[in-house]
Amino acid sequence: MIQLKKEFKVITMSTRRAKQKQQQQLMIIGGGALAAVVVAAVAIFLISSGANVDVCAVDDESCYGEYIGVEQGFTEEGFAYIGSPDAPIMIGEVSDFACPHCVDYHPTLKRLINDFAKTGQARFVYMPVNWTGGNNSNVAAQAAYCAGEQNAFWQFHDELFELSDNEGPNSFDRDTLLSIAGDMGLDTDAMEQCMNNSRSRRAVSEAINIAQRSGVTGTPSILVSYDGGNTWQRLSNRDYSSVGAEILAAQPATSSDEE
User: Fold this and answer.
1) Inter-residue contact 145 to 78 (CB < 8 Å)
2) Strands (E), the chain
3) Across-strand partners of 128?
4) Is the sign of the CA dihedral 193, 196, 199, 205 positive or negative?
5) Element (H, E) at 44
6) Could you read off the pLDDT of 217-227 as tens digits, one per residue?
7) Segments forming the whole domain that contains residue 165
């Protein structure tokens, strides 16, 4: 009988220890899960507050080397351009900041600008439409235009595509865009005043008109003009080689070519 009691006591203690160990393991697992939840909550907060947006100063050549030192301005329609106005060809990109295909095409456009705008062989024009993002696209286009008034359209449009790619076009709210502008070193008061003016909204309607007249039905699409933007025609292919060949074919003949 005594032996049975001892065995029962041993079994009971072993069972309790097993339960205690199990409870400790559950507490550790639960604590780890709680920590994971806290980390996730902090991450969500940082994303929603825009704190995860990492941008470069507007004059940082390591980020915006394709644009720095190249002439920039606006066309009569309010389209931002980069490259010499004396270039023999204009390349217009019909694009939407909320369009995922435009995000994918963006590196190709930057390469074209680097290779042909800097050399004076072509002038590039950005034609913003709102077919994908609606009002989100409108707000982004307004902000980009207003950054352009501080000679930073192309730098800011890089950041818009980066933001669209990482967080989606719903992140194109005014406060977030002004925060990015401030991080880049732009005058946010001037940006905000500009965004309240109708001139910052003109480019979208003008771009839609030109795109529709040129037979554009989707973004991104590439248009070319040989008469300073008075008339445009759509290129069937927008890859680097096709656009580059079009630019090279438009260059004036040199004396060596004529010989």
Assistant:
1) yes
2) 72-74, 80-82, 90-95, 123-128, 221-225, 233-234
3) 95
4) positive
5) helix 2-48
6) 999 999 999 99
7) 61-253
